Every structure is written in structure tokens, then in C-alpha cells.
Amino acid sequence: xxxxxxxxVLSRVLLIAALLVITYLALTPKIYPYVETISDKVRHxxxxxxxxxxxxxSFPKSSFSTAKIGLLLxxxxxxxxxxxxxxxxxxxxxxxxxxxxxxxxxxxLRPFIMKCPLFKWQWNGIR
Length: 127
Description:
This protein is mainly alpha-helical. The protein has one domain (about 5-120). It has 5 helices and no strands. α4 (about 65-85) runs antiparallel to α5 (about 95-115). The model has no long low-confidence stretch (mean pLDDT about 90).
């Protein structure tokens, strides 16, 4: 078995860290004023754009397809359903739509990101 490249290992660590931070922020009763200055829907879209990017470069041999998108949307749905049971949070279809929009924007921009000299090394011609 070929071991993953260092960029893939780093991106997997960052992906796990991002999932932990996003999960914490989605479920905590604590309010962070500097986070709250950004629109909730923008936060959702940006978070899922970043998750899509990290997920994609973490596993570069598989394309950004329904499997990756489904897993990320499942994670978003999981958080929203968990919030149903928290007295200080609420379930929101609009949050799921914002999550989906973040994934869609990544999917649209992905070919351009992959060709950009600043970022193309992350995929290194695998796809």
C-alpha cells in the first residue's frame, strides 16, 4: 500500500480539526461575538466550502462526486437534527440550503482552483 502524500495527511488533520470546530460552534450555547458579526447563512456556506475543499484534497484519488457531497450534506443534516434537541438552537432548512450552496460553489469553482498555480499542487495532476 502506498502511503499518502504529506499534503494529504495535513489536509486530513485540517479536515478533522475543521469538523471538530464546526461541530463545537454548531452545538455550543456559548456566543462568540466575532463569529456572530458574519451572517449565519454566509458562515454555513463558507464552512461547507472549506469542508469540501479539505475533503477533496484529503482524498484526491476520488473525484468530487455524489459520495463526497452526500457525506458532507449528511454531516450538515446530522448537526441540524441534533440542534432539534437543544433548547438554545433550532433546526433550519435554510441552514441546509446554505450548506448545499457552499458545496455547489466549491463544485463550480473546483476546476478553476485546480488550475490556479497557487493551489494546483494540492491535486498534483492526480485527476
